[in-house]
């Protein structure tokens, strides 16, 4: 499949691969190679302009938009620019996916506090994003992405603003979730992060096309269709 | 604000900051409710007046005899009184006729040379045939003619009806203008909070969930605005009604009755319903243009 914005050239072209349910993938490539665009397809913020995309066993290329929220609730996303709601506290930002899913407040309270403790922000629950550092905001964004224990976790440069210790903790969190069956896709430039998870598969984008893996990691991606099986 | 506490207490509602949506919807609904109630009040008062005039003229006729045969008025009156179809006959005194003419003719109205017709007002029983009465009177006094009072009032009733329709059209236009303003306010609110909406959609919020957030805010603002506009309009209408009653010297006859007051009272509710319905539709349409 391919993706273009407006009438411009294709930013993604001739992509054809499958992600195994429960797999752990690193997505690499130079700036502008199309990593964020590919992630957008995965978290259903874009539809491919040609070709098909199947997620959770469903062809979502032309699915009615009313059908998308249910699938989006199964996907956790860590945005490169965090995308926290600035007038909400860290607590309310993390609680947002659970509230949207209709969970009751008692259940939400304990889950959010536990998650904030885990990312080291238990004492900043009431703080608004503007009062948090970049790293703290990123941790809030990660907590929000994983709190629903999604089937698919998509992270765009998730360790870009945290120190190496926190990066290790976050990778440990992603690995733990992966261990519970969550498919994880992490776009990153951080070779150290990639190297610290040798069991992961590597996907490398070059000018919008998937190229052979670097060879530094095991299990190159299979080049058939994008698909995440539950 | 109390309405905010009622409508926006849930954690989900905190997704939109309260202060940024207030001004447009609240001000628009306040101004439009005020203007609509004033115009509607005037229209309803006109309708009530027209109805009073119409019912006052119902079954009422005038027997007119030219000046040359004015001495035959008692015969015509007696004939009319003898008919079962006639409930009441009242001759109009010559002095009263001349007094009326004085408004146009001045002292010349008192001149004996001025030919003044003789007249009598006739009230018929309900369902009576006026032509039969006219024929009976005409048989005794061939010079007499009988005409309905409502015929004479037709031009003024026509004007009153035209004014009522004008008031109705103005109310409809103001409702349309308010709806258009709410459309702009809803789109503006959506644009202002575009990033929040995108985040919510990305996390799996449905259009209904996103729309509900804005609707709550708009409903709270519309209720507050409609209430403020209605209170202001009610005060003005009360002052006007009191002034009209005092000017007419009849403090017991109000220009608006209970049905008219009830109709005015539901106008703020209609305004809020329009605002919320229009906002709902606008928001859903705008959201459908996104993925």
Structural description of this entry:
- The complex is a heterodimer of chains A (230) and B (291).
- The longest helix of chain A has 16 residues, at 164-179.
- Mean pLDDT of chain A is 86; it is low at 213-225.
- Chain A is α/β, with parallel strands linked by helices and 230 residues long.
- A 6-stranded mixed β-sheet of chain A has the order 6-7-8-3-9-10, with helices on both faces. Chain A has a 3-stranded mixed β-sheet with strand order 5-4-11, with no helix packed on it.
- Chain A starts with a strand and ends with a strand.
- Chain A has helices at residues 35-42, 68-72, 90-100, 105-118, 134-146, 164-179, 191-195; strands at 3-4, 10-12, 24-29, 54-55, 58-59, 75-78, 152-156, 183-187, 201-206, 209-211, 227-228.
- Chain A has 2 domains: 1-74 and 151-230, 3-Layer(aba) Sandwich (Rossmann fold), CATH 3.40.50; 85-149, no CATH class.
- In chain B, helix 2 (22-57) packs antiparallel against helix 6 (149-192), helix 3 crosses helix 5 (130-140) and helix 8 packs antiparallel against helix 10 (267-288).
- The longest helix of chain B is centred in the middle third of the chain and has 44 residues, at 149-192.
- Chain B is α+β, with helices and mostly antiparallel strands and 291 residues long.
- Chain B starts with a helix and ends with a helix.
- Chain B has 10 helices and 4 strands.
- Helix content of chain B is 69%, strand content 8%.
